[in-house]
Automatic annotation (TrEMBL):
Coiled coil: none
Residues annotated as binding 4-CDP-2-C-methyl-D-erythritol 2-phosphate: D11, I12, H13, H37, S38, D59, I60, G61, T135, T136, N137, E138, R145
Subunit structure: Homotrimer.
Positions of a divalent metal cation binding: D11, H13, H45
UniProt lineage: Bacteria, Bacillati, Cyanobacteriota, Cyanophyceae, Synechococcales
Pathway the protein acts in: Isoprenoid biosynthesis; isopentenyl diphosphate biosynthesis via DXP pathway; isopentenyl diphosphate from 1-deoxy-D-xylulose 5-phosphate: step 4/6
Native source organism of the sequence: Synechocystis salina LEGE 00031
Protein name: 2-C-methyl-D-erythritol 2,4-cyclodiphosphate synthase
Chain positions of site Transition state stabilizer: H37, T136
Length: 161
């Protein structure tokens, strides 16, 4: 018997002048970066929420509360490794992941493969199981005005036997 569980995640972080831009663990040269208590890696945050959502385990704020100083400046890939552990402990594996980053600037296409490889390494899966797309918001709304970058993620988990 095969069991499937699907989850979705969303996050948005504000763009500011004095922070690095980190997406999927890749530091991208840009005049603005994402603000947050952690490294503000919005893609990895949306992905963690999708994975937790698939197993009805709550959200990242439950495991890594922004009020807790230990997560200040946290490397989100390290948090993702902890989320992956929760999945493995429960006997699930990742079937595939799909993600959309909404960013007016910079061009993300040249960095997508590196993001996939970073995430795949942490999750111990093939990079081809991870979809990552980038889109502008056609200059509409907060992402379109370059006030922030948002990400949406979908995760499909599978358990056999
Ligand atoms: N930050 C971004 C946004 C988009 N792209 C790539 O450009 C294509 C066209 O984007 P539209 O929003 O105009 O549809 C998109 O499909 C991406 O390939 C990007 O690299 N970085
Ligand atoms: C991982 C955390 C830890 O503070 O990161 P933040 O940078 O606060 O980002 P947010 O997506 O607002 O909330 C998730 C938090 O749990």
């Amino acid at each position: 018997m095969i069991a499937l569980r699907i989850g979705n995640g969303y996050d948005i972080h504000r763009l500011v002048g004095d922070r690095p831009l980190i997406l999927g663990g890749v530091t991208i040269a840009h005049h603005l970066g994402l603000d947050g208590h952690s490294d503000a890696d919005v893609l990895t945050h949306a992905l963690m929420d999708a994975l937790l959502g698939a197993l009805s385990l709550g959200d990242i704020g439950h495991y890594f509360p922004p009020s807790d100083a230990q997560w200040r400046g946290a490397d989100s890939l390290k948090l993702l490794a902890q989320v992956n552990q929760l999945i493995i402990e429960r006997g699930w594996r990742i079937n595939n992941l799909d993600n959309v980053i909404v960013a007016e600037q910079p061009k993300l296409k040249p960095h997508i493969q590196a993001m996939k490889e970073n995430l795949a390494k942490v999750l111990a899966i093939d990079p081809d199981l991870i979809g990552i797309k980038a889109t502008t918001n056609e200059r509409l709304g907060p992402t379109g005005r370059e006030e922030g970058i948002a990400a949406y993620s979908v995760a499909l988990l599978v358990k056999e036997g």
